[in-house]
């Protein structure tokens, strides 16, 4: 076995897949998880780097799913946790199926918070460990036609900053918030946003976003906004009124906005 052990959630595609690739390439044994069978095919790809790779299919919107993931770790100390699992949901809020928006909340918020609590307790006890949480610049923006998702990311961005302060005396444990913008993943297809302006526009490379996050985590940084255009957007979000930001988001996310 390798000296270091990493868990990466939401690793079947996108940013999570790239984070798992980096972890394995950097010599970590990895445990990868997603809520779809594709995670097993992804795990086969990670084995090219010669470390131990295990995969588990679990729904991380539930306590049971998180418990199942941690049980699969077999009690091994977690050196790196990439809490990346999450998904979005486009369209008007009043038109959304409550079971779908609840799953967004339970995955992005409840499952993430529970996983962090479980993992951080063990890390703090031995004063060693690195955590990367995938937040989003969406947390800065009132998300017209993506309201629930943006609200969950606002929670995560705030929550991570608070826990960083609570654990500031645990100098061997670091928590980094990775805040990407629109990234070229399956996110927009799964969120029913392929016909929107943001869904049809050019997006960031998930491999670069993942590398930015990994490097920031290893450097012990508190947060990283990946991409200069996303950095600019967060600066503007701190000075523009919410009504204007919501209107700008409508232009990006309103159904049909991406059609000619």
TrEMBL record:
One term of GO molecular function: oxidoreductase activity
Q: What InterPro entries does UniProt report for this protein, alphabetically?
A: NAD(P)-bd_dom_sf (IPR036291), Sc_DH/Rdtase_CS (IPR020904), SDR_fam (IPR002347)
One Pfam family cited in the UniProt record for this chain: adh_short
**Is Methyltransferase included in the keywords of this UniProt record?**
no
Q: Which UniProt keywords are present, listed alphabetically? A: Oxidoreductase
Give the highest taxon in the source lineage.
Bacteria
Asked if the record carries the keyword Iron-sulfur, the reply is no
Q: Write out the similarity annotation.
A: Belongs to the short-chain dehydrogenases/reductases (SDR) family.
Protein name listed in UniProt: Oxidoreductase
